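Hypothesis: this fold can be encoded by more than one sequence.
Test: take the structure tokens below, design a sequence, compare later.
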């Protein structure tokens, strides 16, 4: 029987695999149109499943009831605490000025000709959720429209709450950005899927066979090496928004979600899985790769206990 050859299974597309700098992912581009906030954020509660009617005309299951695994993201209202204006810099956008009051915005209007873009500075409200996090996550979210329209919206929005229903809609597709589960420092077998050495190998088994020639004496970046696994910032494109609800009791299973508890605020039901464990911050943006809308009608939500009883 011939030997099975499997040098590597992991993709090099995300090399180097380093830890994320922080759990609040940074987003540099906010696609979308309209004079409104172009993104939102929430906390991953957990997964359940639903029965939905497939209303896609060209689908093999068109008109049928299908089983769909879904992720529930709790989305308490965001507080707009200020804005940040950007001007043209030598290597791209450069921070021009921050404004936290309407008086600051009036002063900013006098320099509108130098402003290239304006983003809202928002804060989450984890204190009104079930898990014991008190410190809010602060982030920037893009604003659609011209600079004058952005200033007008920011002037009216500072100090107010923004709900998820004002930003997202049922049936649309959204891009999801979050930090994956962290698994620490791991070897090449778990990190890259390299085949173990034979049982008759003279030394260790869980390592690569050779690291290459002695000369030149350097490690190739293509070589599977041990290092960080997980806790990486990842974006998943075109996640279907199946439902946006006001009452978390509609989706909270008996006993609450594992390692999270009950959902007490607005929520977003997403088709499929989302990166990261429970309580992880999840950011929403408009789709970057245009596709059709998600045509599903949810008719039943599974709220059975996830405790294993």
């Amino acid at each position: 029987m011939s030997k099975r050859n499997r040098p590597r299974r992991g993709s090099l597309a995300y090399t180097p695999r380093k830890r994320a700098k922080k759990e609040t992912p940074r987003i540099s581009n906010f696609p979308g149109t309209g004079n409104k906030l172009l993104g939102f954020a929430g906390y991953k509660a957990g997964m359940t499943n639903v029965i939905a009617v497939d209303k896609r005309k060209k689908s093999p299951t068109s008109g049928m009831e299908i089983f769909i695994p879904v992720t529930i993201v709790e989305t308490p209202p965001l507080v707009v605490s200020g804005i940040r204006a950007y001007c043209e810099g030598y290597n791209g956008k450069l921070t021009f000025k921050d404004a936290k009051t309407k008086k600051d915005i009036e002063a900013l209007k006098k320099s509108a000709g130098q402003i290239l873009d304006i983003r809202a500075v928002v804060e989450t409200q984890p204190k009104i959720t079930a898990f014991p996090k008190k410190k809010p996550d602060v982030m920037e979210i893009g604003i659609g429209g011209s600079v004058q329209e952005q200033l007008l919206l920011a002037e009216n929005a500072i100090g107010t709450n923004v709900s998820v229903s004002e930003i997202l809609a049922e049936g649309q597709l959204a891009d999801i950005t979050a930090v994956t589960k962290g698994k620490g420092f791991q070897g090449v077998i778990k990190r890259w899927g390299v085949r173990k050495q034979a049982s008759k190998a003279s030394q260790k088994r869980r390592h690569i066979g050779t690291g290459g020639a002695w000369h030149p004496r350097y490690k190739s970046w293509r070589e599977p090496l041990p290092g960080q696994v997980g806790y990486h910032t990842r974006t998943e494109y075109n996640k279907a928004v199946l439902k946006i609800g006001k009452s978390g009791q509609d989706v909270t299973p008996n006993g609450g979600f594992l390692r999270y508890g009950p959902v007490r605020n607005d929520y977003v039901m997403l088709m499929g899985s989302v990166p990261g464990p429970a309580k992880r911050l999840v950011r929403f943006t408009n789709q970057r790769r245009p596709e059709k809308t998600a045509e599903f009608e949810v008719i039943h939500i599974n709220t059975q206990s996830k405790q294993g009883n």
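The two ends are 47 Å apart (CA to CA). The chain has two domains: 28-75+163-195+224-309, 77-162.
Hypothesis status: open.
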